[in-house]
Give the backbone structure.
Amino acid sequence: MYTFLVVLILIVCVLLAIVVLVQNSKGGGLAANFSAPNQIMGVRRTADFLEKATWWLAIILVVLSLAATASIPHHHAEDAIESEVTVDNNVSPVAATTAAPAAQAADATPAE
């Protein structure tokens, strides 16, 4: 499920980038090519469509991102505990650190 959501997020990101790049900040862009007022989608309708598409794609991106975050696969707590026990059994730092002070204490006899 997580992988499917990530693929959908990537598709929405590409579509959002395309829609934003088609728009022109000064009101031109794709809408500037439609100068005849008798066409089915005039300049204003194309700009409205691109603006609505931008908003919808942004909303879909946020929703998919939240859903992907909620569906991240988690490891079970038992697996994590077992891996910590395995690491602790392989290395014993406590034995190495407690042996050194004991040896120093035996060597430090008061000189008379």
In short: The chain has four helices and no strands. The CA atoms of residues 36 and 42 lie 7 Å apart. The radius of gyration is 32 Å. The chain has a mean pLDDT of 74.
